[in-house]
Amino acid sequence: MSSLHLQPLHPHFAAEASGIDLAQPLADADVRAINAAMNRYAVLVWRGQPLTAQQQLRLCGSFGPLDIGLKRVFKRPERLEDERLIDISNVDAQGQVARRDSPKNLSNFANQLWHSDSSFMNPRAAYSMLHSVINPSWGGETEFADLRAAHDALDARMRNTIAGLSAEHFALHTRLLLGDEAYTDAQKKEIPPAIWPLIDTHPGSGRKVLFVGVHARQIVGWPTAESRMLLLDLLEHATQREFVYRHEWQVGDTVMWDNRATLHRGRRYDIAERRELRRTTVNDTPEAMLQAA
Q1: Buried (b) or exposed (e) across 85-109, using 16+ Cβ within 10 A?
Q2: How many separate domains does the chain show?
Q3: Element (H, E) at 104
Q4: Which of 17, 93, 112, 206 registers the highest number of CB atoms within 10 A of its CB?
C-alpha cells in the first residue's frame, strides 16, 4: 500500500504531495497512487527532496518513455549529461550565466508564455517534472492553469462554437512570435505541426478539457486572422486567476504536472542572476498509461 499523502493547494486542482521518497525507486503501488492523484489534481508539488539528475530520470521514467522535445530542432551544445534532461536555466554550455540576447534566454522568454509541453508533437507530452536546483532572489515562479475547470466554465455559445473544431500546434510558433526567425526550412520541418481538438477528453480522468495554449497557431479550416483571435480569447478565458495556481520555488522542490490537463508559464526574474531547474517529460503513449495504470 502506498503512503502518499495529499494536501490540496487550490479549489480546482493542485496538491502538495508527501510520504514517498522520490530519490528511491518507486514501488508499483506508489506509481499507481501518484497516477491516480495526477488524474484528480493534475499538479503535484513535492517539497524538500533534492534529487540528482539520475534520480530524476529514474523517477520520471517510472511513468513511461522520456522525450527530448525541441532538442530535435535546436541540436545545441548542452551542459547536462543526458539529452533527456531539459535545462530550464539561464546558464550556457560552459556553465556561465548566459548573455541577455543568447538563445538560452530566448527559450526562457518563450517559457513565460502560457503553454503545455510538446503540444506541437504527436504523441504529445503527458507528465512533466521540474526540479529546482538554484533560485534567483526574486521572481521565477511557475503558474499553472486548470484546463478542465476552464472547459467547465465555458458559456453555452462558446462551447457550441468550438465543438468539433481542432487547432494546429507548431513547435516554432512561440519563437517566431518573439522575433526569432533564424531557422532553416529543414528545422521548420523537423517537427511537423500536430492537430488536437479544442475540446478534448483527458484520458485519465475522463473530464473534458479546453486544449489551448500559445503553441496553437491556427484553427483548422478557419481564416488565419479569425482563428488566431478566437484562440487568444480562449487562452484568456483559460488563464483567468480563478483557474491558476502559482508555485513559489524552494531548492529541492519537484513539481509534476499533466500537460494534457493544464497550461503553465514561468514568471519574470532578473536574467543576470543564476537560476537552474531540470525538466524531464514523459510521452503520452499507450505504454506509458499502461505502466502507470
Answers
A1: bbbbbbbbeeeebbeeeeebbbbbb
A2: 1
A3: helix 103-110
A4: 17
Closest CA to 17 of 36, 291, 202: 36
Q: Residue 229 belongs to what domain range?
A: 5-291
Which amino acid type is present at position 150? A
Read off the pTM: 0.93
- Tell how far CA 18 is from the center of its chain: 21
Beta-carbon count within 10 A of 290 CB: 9
How far apart are the C-alpha atoms of 83 and 100, rounded to whole Å? 24
The CATH number linked to 119 is 3.60.130.10
189 pLDDT band, cuts 50/70/90, is confident
CB within 8 Å of 228: residues ≥ 6 apart: 217, 218
CB-CB contact of 132 with 279 (8 Å): no
pLDDT in tens, 41-76: 999 999 999 999 999 999 999 999 998 766 555 566
From CA 114, how far away is CA 266, in angstroms rounded?
A: 8
251: Cβ contacts below 8 Å, ≥ 6 apart = 50, 132, 133, 134, 135
Rounded Cα gap, residues 245 and 149, in angstroms: 12
Q: How far apart are CA 33 and CA 54, in angstroms?
A: 22
